[in-house]
Amino acid sequence: DIVDSGGTVLLGAKALKASGAKDIHLFATHLVLSGESCLNFERNESLFKTRHGADTIDQTNKHHGFRIHSATGLFTDYIRKILE
User: Fold this and answer.
1) CB–CB of 56/71 below 8 Å?
2) Across the chain, where does the E strand assignment appear?
3) Which of 53, 56, 62, 70 is deepest in the core (most CB within 10 A)?
4) Does residue 16 contact residue 46 with C-beta atoms inside 8 Å?
5) What's the rounded Cα separation, in Å, for the pair 27 and 54?
6) What is the CA radius of gyration of the chain?
């Protein structure tokens, strides 16, 4: 879903690690990444094996280690299905 400051997702990742999770992969649809989010993710970089986000919000030069994936194809496919 949405990752704004990253606080909630970081708390969840810490709880998973404390419970014995070996690898945590973060997938976010909307990367707001406001305020202190950059520092939050840099300080806790080792929590996540990978971080992924969709390009639904412009993150030009502001990815904070997230691999950005295009949502264009997904939207295009569903629009075509609706219009058929």
Assistant:
1) yes
2) 2-3, 25-28, 30-31, 50-54, 67-69
3) 53
4) no
5) 8
6) 15
